[in-house]
Design brief:
Blueprint: E1 2-8, E2 18-24, E3 43-49, E4 64-69, E5 75-81, E6 89-101, E7 105-119, E8 124-140, E9 145-151, E10 158-165
Antiparallel strand pairs: 1-6, 1-10, 2-3, 2-9, 3-4, 4-5, 6-7, 7-8
The structure holds calcium ion.
InterPro entries: ConA-like_dom_sf
Length: 177
């Protein structure tokens, strides 16, 4: 899945909180603020977390992109961080390759690549690769919905999507999609 996004443009001195791409069981409202709109919904999220609350025990004290399960407190893997994810139109690609499955889980590789600019006319990446990392493991199957969430809590910020593309490819092993 590819998308072009923008986070920023806020006059808030402490803007928050970020957005997330969610693979989830059912459409519902998740937690606000640092929970980025998805906490509590059974599923997986790739969060673009742009805010740290001092003393927060679960987040690192810098912007980051992470894989979480069910809850923003539950980081499974950090794709990267210590980079500025705000104030530019950026291009993101989240690609999943299924390798094996059983009745409850899929084993596969989730790759996240983020470019620091986006070509909004040609709908293509531009600029430099900020983050490029993958996580391979077993993913519990929660459901079949795909969507985005965002939250601001007591702060303010803009979270915008310009364009998205969803592509489904046959898996290299076993015909699993
Ligand atoms: Ca956070």
């Amino acid at each position: 899945m590819d998308f072009i996004y923008f986070i920023g443009n806020s006059t808030d001195p402490d803007p928050a909180d970020g957005l997330a791409l969610n693979f989830y069981r059912e459409p519902m409202l998740g937690g606000a603020g640092g929970h980025i709109g998805y906490s509590g919904i059974p599923g997986w999220a790739v969060e673009f977390d742009t805010h740290y609350v001092y003393g927060n025990p679960w987040d690192p004290p810098y912007q980051h992109i992470a894989l979480t399960e069910i809850h923003a407190e539950n980081h499974v893997y950090f794709f990267g961080g210590r980079v500025d994810l705000r104030n530019r139109w950026m291009y993101a690609r989240v690609a999943f390759t299924a390798l094996e499955r059983n009745s409850t889980h899929i084993y596969g590789r989730l790759q996240v690549t983020v470019w620091d600019r986006a070509d909004r006319q040609n709908l293509a990446p531009l600029g430099n690769v900020l983050i490029n990392s993958s996580y391979t493991g077993w993913f519990k199957i929660y459901g079949h919905y795909l969507g985005f969430s965002a939250a601001t809590g007591g702060q303010r910020d803009s979270h915008a999507l310009w364009w998205t593309r969803v592509e489904v490819c046959p898996a290299p092993v076993g015909g699993v999609v």
